[in-house]
Amino acid sequence: MSSNNPDIDIAKNIRIIEWLKAELIAGIGALYKAMVKNNQEIIGDSLAGLVVGCYLLGKRLGVPFHKLDTRIAERLESSQLQNHEIEEWYGDVTNLEHYFKERNQR
User: What angle do CA 67, 69, 72 make, to 5 degrees?
Assistant: First the structure.
């Protein structure tokens, strides 16, 4: 869905990037408010919105969805996360890594 005028496409892309950045910031605010209220439904909605926003922003910045998935998987396998306290205490990194692998096999 592009226009015949490249200047308009560039301006439109910049506007969308700025809008997505603002949406991410607003999403973080909504998450914090939901955490204060301990509202699990709104927490889940806020987190989902942040994840979707990150994927959309990545696409606008030239990172295809599958490349972002690959980078996430690589990050989960990195020694930096494998030695993180959240992994040592709860095993969350390993659990998320297994989830990603199972999801990609479907």
Answer: 110
Containing structural domain, residue 83: 64-106
CB neighbour class for 58 (10 Å; exposed up to 12, middle 13-18, buried from 19): middle
pTM: 0.85
List the structure tokens of 37.
């209220």
User: How many C-beta atoms lie closer than 10 Å to residue 59's C-beta?
Assistant: 15
Both 41 and 93 in one domain: the answer is: no
* Model confidence pLDDT, tens digit, residues 29-87: 999 999 999 999 999 999 999 999 999 999 999 999 999 999 998 988 887 788 889 88
Whether residue 57 sits in one domain with residue 5? yes
In the DSSP assignment, the letter for residue 39 is -
Contact 46, 31 (CB under 8 A): yes
- Say how far apart CA 26 and CA 38 lie, in whole Å: 18
Number of domains in the chain: 2
